[in-house]
Sequence to fold (425 residues):
Amino acid sequence: MLDIKFLLENHDLVVENLKKRFKTDKIWLIDELKENYNAWKNNKKKADELRHRRNVVSEEINKAKKHKKDVSGLIKEASEIPDNIKKLEEEEKLFQEEINKKLIQIPNILHKSVPVGKDASENKEIGKWGKIKKFNFELKNHVELLENLNAADFEAGREVAGQGFNYLLGELAQLDLALQRYGVDFLLQRKFKLIVPPLMLNRETLSGAIDLSAFEEVIYKVENENLYLIGTAEHSLVTMLKNKTLNKKDLPIRLCAVTPCFRKEIGGHGVDTKGLFRMHQFNKVEQVVFTDEKNSFNILEEMQVITEKFFQSLEIPYRVVEICSGDLGAKFAKQYDIEAWFPRQNKYQEVTSAGNCTDYQARKLGIKYLDGQEKKFVHILNNTMVATSRAMVAILENYQNKDGSISIPRLLQKYTGFDKIKCKR
Fold:
């Protein structure tokens, strides 16, 4: 969330930011935040004055006793002060909660380079890589390919768990693991530290990573427990340093993790609801970096390059899209997507996202660093290294052969131990 003082001192900037994001329905929150903040300040001032008065009264009682004066009035006043302070502190807490509730509805300040646009149709293509292969046979969709290869059991997944769950079999399961291992190795060679994080977080912690009110229909909650299944390893990684103060010399801190991810929504129609492209459970290698404000946008570019090189090494054509203001998530100041080429679908589709949240998440999570004598909030960035399900669909479409077999990208073969998925029927 934004700093309340920054928001009130930069009223015009925040309003303009909301207009660029096409969120003018939230402008009214700024005036309410000002009222709430002034009420909070007033309460705090009264409480501070009472604390000071308590000390004064204590001294006056001691002096009066030494001079054998009547102290009953002072004692009565002193006895009432703690309850009055407690009442003001409770009101102060309520005002703070109200402020936070409204603050999380105000999105992050856009980087000046973000293209202005209302929705995804206005996202800006900024580059392409790779040669699109010409096929001399009719392409099959990945579901048909996998069923012919006996490499996945979609019906068994639906029967035991429901739509959006699948069994990956034999070589396809090995390909999934190969992408995970290769993705991790790719990041370890680039100064990332591998973490095995919790797959569940409590409500307070998860609320620091995301606006939970906006994700209630997306995140799975554990029944009768204050726990939620993570939608991405980002949730566990960004909260790992919750309420910590770091040393500037230790920044940037680069973390990565490979985890299953759990999401209620899958959307899509036809093959998307049956296949691998959209699932309730999938595996993902994630990057998260904690840094200072001076370097965060340079690191965003570095993280983007890492993921591009990863897909280049798999020889999968892609394009890079910069997300426009109206399509950008509330926590992001700037974001890039990589969209891989899916030849059977004859279109590019998203496979990774890289974004800079600046200090928006860190403020909710209380993650700071010491810069000399001053404490500042860190900047947090995240990037999908590889979501294996979507990467596998891209491989299945781009590497399918006329005989129905699937070639394995060269650099994954040392992880799979084979160069093709072949039909066993």
Q: What stands out?
A: The first strand starts at residue 124 and ends at 129.
